[in-house]
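Next up, a specimen:

>
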Amino acid sequence: MMKRLNFLNTREVKKIREQVIVDFGFFPKGDYAFLKSDKDRLFIVNKDVAKLELKNLRIDRMGLYLGEVKPNQIRLSKEGAQLIVRLGGNKVTNIVEINEEEVKEYFQGNDLIKDLGEKNRLIILKHKKEILGCASYKEGKILNFLPKIHRGTVIV
């Protein structure tokens, strides 16, 4: 089966923009185009890419992988979280600082037990100045979404 990347129309981009603002308080402004894969992966590219004829090409990915589109949420990739924080600065919400021990646990693929209040939500994990990625907070736990390729033992 041929993989497809489809450009999102203005209405679809607006919906994604609104959802990311609800979850994280900020969405980058700029002259970008957004592509979505068959597997609901979201990519951000330079608008000039929109001029290319993609329908006859087999393309897995293009541009920066921003995250995965889920019903009622956009789960940011590590790079997507870094982009949002770098461009949004102090406008970005739901950033959770974790300590060195928690970083080690997280990079071993474990969920973290941490009380962040009642509200279940997506969060951006941070250790010192490093943005580690996006995770889900649910019922006193930070659920680990770290891809296996990024896991390891000697991190900090």
Strands lie at 5-7, 32-37, 41-46, 64-70, 73-76, 95-97, 112-113, 121-127, 130-138, 141-143. The longest strand covers residues 130-138. Residues 1-86 form a domain with the Nuclear Transport Factor 2; Chain: A, fold (CATH 3.10.450.720).
